[in-house]
Amino acid sequence: MSNQNETLFERAKQIIPAGVNSPVRAFGSVGGIPRFIAKAQGAHVWDANGTQYIDYVGSWGTGIVGHAHPEVVEAVREAAVGGLSFGAPTEAEIVIAEEIAKIVPSVERLRLVSSGTEATMTAIRLARGYTGRDKIVKFEGCYHGHSDSLLVKAGSGLLTFGNPSSAGVPADLTQHTIVLPYNDVAALKQAFDEFGTQIAGVILEPIAGNMNLVRATPEFVQTLRQVTEQNGAVLIYDEVMTGFRVALGGAQSLHGITPDLTTMGKVIGGGMPLAAFGGKKEIMDCISPLGGVYQAGTLSGNPVAVAAGLKTLEIIQRPNFYENLSARTQQLAQGLTAAAQSAGIEFCADSVGGMFGLYFAPQFPQTYADMMASNVDGFKQFFHAMLDKNVAFGPSAYEAGFVSAAHTPELIDETIEIAKQVFAQMK
């Protein structure tokens, strides 16, 4: 029987660069043939060959209630019957904005967009427009979408302006971006001592998910809030991944921090393209047409995406949703760690809410450098062996994983049993 994944990948490469519409899907960092997904339901996906997998990618975190949740699908169907897009205001946009503001108290005003990249790009522009300053601070290993000024890598010193990390980005566009090590309080203080009056804002993944799961330390986030307030800089919590995923109120509710702006995506769209940015009224009032910071979008607040998002937000507020989600994710992290230890494999796993990290390392990483020092080859071996046994994790050692409400304790146990076999083989 022919491998449909391989056939489709070869066909895709003839028309789509590298055969994929987002780079990590190409399996570039793990090798092999990506699985082309034909359908998904609950905690499972099926590929083009009809093979069923237990899925821990969950559309990179969007699928918190499980794939194709019947209530979400019905909400989408009802909305679609009324029209797919209007380019005009709808009542549902107001309802979802009010709902998000109710759940996330730091959001006094909010605007809907279609992607996390749009949300973070505009939040940066807004910070600059509000403060009249140019410089932005970001942290090494954090990803905030693919807008030009955020596609940067650290320079050579402790405190350096970023160099473009992508071709096609002029150095002029990243010269105002300062890249600091994650969780480095001293470097943060030094940056503000040196450039405080020039810094428009700081953007942070409060729990990083793009160098695998890396928690920000309490001292780091408290210092961050302190130095931004003292210097009149805008603190942006990028909760595109963590929002409604690590807790109902996002990472900011766990940190006890009130950011000035928050970016959101993934969960709020319920699987449809929807994102948002919001925060203090005085900052948000700088956005057009009220203020001089321009932002627009034909599909912003798309009625079908809003319907999916609203139903998802309703489901996640039901009794014990997060208690159960956190318990299942913890069960997975602890079970995998125990399985690896019993096989003598250097490995650990961490989880927050419905998000987890797997590390072929002796301890949880705190920085990008820690992650780079982990055993990436070990991860590749584990990833492919699990995939061959029908368990799908993200195809990169640098990506967090996700559990949904559809993952039962039995499915988690099944995953751990398969991992025991894999770790034994690896040893």
TrEMBL record:
Record-listed E.C. numbers: 5.4.3.8
EC class of the enzyme, as a word: isomerase
GO cellular component: cytoplasm
PROSITE patterns for this protein: AA_TRANSFER_CLASS_3 (PS00600)
Cofactor: pyridoxal 5'-phosphate
Keyword match Isomerase: yes
Signal peptide: none
HAMAP family linked: HemL_aminotrans_3
Protein's name in the database: Glutamate-1-semialdehyde 2,1-aminomutase
Species: Alysiella crassa
Gene that encodes the chain: hemL
